[in-house]
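Subject: Protein record for review, amino acid sequence with backbone structure tokens
Concerning: The relation between a protein's sequence and the shape of its backbone.
How to read it: Take the token row as a discrete description of the fold.
Enclosed: The protein record, placed directly beneath this head.
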Amino acid sequence: MPAWGWALVAAAAALAIDRLLLAMEARGWIYYRTKSARRGAAAVMLPFDEVFHPSSHVVIAERQSSEIRAAQQDSGDGPDPAE
């Protein structure tokens, strides 16, 4: 096979692999081209921060629940049965 034939085969294989990786990224299996993963030391330290500083999650949850309660109070709806 001439050199241009091998170049054509290599280009077709690269295109097929690219499409496969894009399909895998669309399903959320990998990060490839369009989506970016969190990188750096902050991404590595985030689980440790959640273990040693859980109060930030409590504050966020309380803010969300107080916003929901305020919206329910303004609209006249009763409390959520799940609460």
Observations:
- Residues 38-78 form one domain.
- The mean pLDDT is 80.
